[in-house]
Structure to design on (182 residues):
């Protein structure tokens, strides 16, 4: 397959169109020198060189980088905790805290809310359903390119589209409602 053009598909990763091409070409070169494979270690190894076009996309101040990584670790720790919920006689482990958009600034775009609290907040539930729909749409977009080659992908895309319609009803009264006893 001949690559003609690179683009940026990561939301939130700000990179200019010219940088996308430069980075894409550099990644291709690194992969070519590594039997067609890339790993984060290969990319980081190249980026350590200040002359590398990848260098500018990394935080080289170790204090700042360590803090940002610890924020990621804290988020992962919060996400790792689950509660056992009993519904219709069946027990199921679900995430105890869910990241939601912060309505009041706390120095963070998101806050983590307990699932028990979310079960009582319709607006927060709508936010979560909208995020679910967006994530499903992203999955559909990401894998729909394979639909011509794999029948299962085409079938899955139909089901995903139906799920998105359920999560994004035309009126708020049709919005799915989360109810859980913890």
């Amino acid at each position: 397959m001949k690559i003609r053009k690179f683009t940026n598909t990561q939301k939130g990763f700000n990179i200019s169109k010219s940088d996308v091409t430069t980075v894409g070409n550099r990644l291709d070169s690194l992969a070519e020198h590594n039997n067609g494979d890339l790993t984060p270690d290969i990319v980081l190894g190249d980026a350590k060189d200040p002359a590398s076009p990848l260098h500018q996309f990394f935080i080289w101040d170790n204090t700042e980088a360590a803090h940002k990584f610890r924020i990621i670790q804290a988020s992962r720790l919060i996400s790792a905790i689950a509660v056992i919920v009993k519904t219709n006689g069946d027990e199921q482990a679900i995430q105890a805290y869910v990241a939601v958009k912060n309505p009041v600034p706390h120095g963070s775009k998101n806050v983590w809310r307990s699932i028990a609290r979310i079960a009582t907040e319709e607006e927060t539930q709508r936010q979560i359903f909208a995020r679910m729909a967006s994530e499903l749409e992203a999955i559909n977009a990401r894998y729909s390119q394979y639909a011509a080659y794999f029948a299962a992908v085409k079938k899955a895309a139909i089901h995903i589209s139906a799920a998105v319609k359920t999560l994004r009803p035309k009126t708020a009264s049709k919005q799915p409602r989360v109810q859980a006893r913890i």
In short: The mean pLDDT is 83. The longest strand covers residues 82-87.
